[in-house]
Amino acid sequence: MLLALCSPTQAQQPKKVPRIGYLSVLSPSSDFTRNEAFRQGLRELGYVEGRNLAIEPRYAEGKLDRLPELAGELARLNVDVIVAGGSTAIRAAKNSTKLIPIVMAHGSDPVALGYVTSLARPGGNITA
After folding, report:
1. CA distances from 83 to 9, 11, 19, 80, 125 (A)
2. What confidence score (pLDDT) does residue 85 get?
3. 38 in any annotated domain
């Protein structure tokens, strides 16, 4: 009994909650439908914001010149992934980090724009 009391117990390490940076050209109200679909897709995969997932949203509210600053904030927060929609937001995210994975939520041809080498093998940190 004494040995059991003296032996060190394994403390459970708290799980790291993944953080997604969400970068949008739009405002929260204009992006509501897309944002809700995004969250619903995550819920279907078992990820619930506030329970086992954190989302760091950044909205440019139509002011494209704000995108580099907002993308930089997400990079400084060291989120696990950045989800960016639209060519301008994707470019801002790409220019803000070479290490954080970037997922293109929607946009034009990523190969033609030079974001990825090919769809089969994107290379770099951007994927479609």
Report:
1. 40, 34, 11, 10, 12
2. 86
3. yes
Distance from C-alpha of 109 to C-alpha of 77, rounded to nearest angstrom: 28
pTM, 2 dp = 0.84
CA–CA separation, 59 and 56 (whole Å):
10
Q: Report pLDDT for 9.
A: 52
Kindly report the backbone phi and psi dihedral angles of residue 52, in degrees, each rounded to the nearest multiple of 5, phi listed first: -135, 25
The first and second tokens of residue 128, run together, are 């479609």
Q: Give residue 45's Cα distance to chain centre.
A: 15
**Lookup: tokens for 96:** 């803000």
User: Does residue 124 sit in helix, strand or coil?
Assistant: coil
Q: What is the pLDDT of residues 62-97, one digit of tens each?
A: 999 999 999 999 999 999 999 998 889 999 999 999
Tell me which residue range forms the domain holding 105. Answer: 25-127
**Contact between residue 89 and residue 25 where contact means Cβ atoms under 8 Å apart:** yes
Domain membership flag for residue 11:
no
Contact 99, 125 (CB under 8 A): yes
Confirm whether 1 is domain-assigned. Answer: no
Amino acid making up residue 111: V
